[in-house]
Amino acid sequence: MDYEDDHMCFVCGKQNGDGLHLDFELIGDDRIRTEFTPSKRFQGWKDVLHGGIIATILDEVMVNGAYLRQIMAVTTKLQITLRRPVAIGERVVFYGQILKQGARTVDMKAWAEGENGTIVAEATGLLMKIRG
Asked: What is the value of pTM for the model shown?
């Protein structure tokens, strides 16, 4: 399978009209961050952000943490813990961090913080390096 960026990624693709269009910022040698303020179209229960959207962004912050450092990789394992509900309209900051890099894999962690700094979700991921 060929892996090519056609800018249609649901989370970061600028050409995807249905996407989130998130921007990612590198922090230091091993971290990355992005922000998201959910609108009602992303809710699960009334006025609560759908957990699948949180999971998707946690996954993407880990993959982009590698990609923006020229490490081409895909997620092979993802474990998520949702700690608190996120209200529609509440700004959430997502962080990713490289924990360990091997010859073929990258171990990552990610977390999401609500407006008051409380961790609302956490994830760990194993990324497999690929050829671009």
From this structure: 0.95
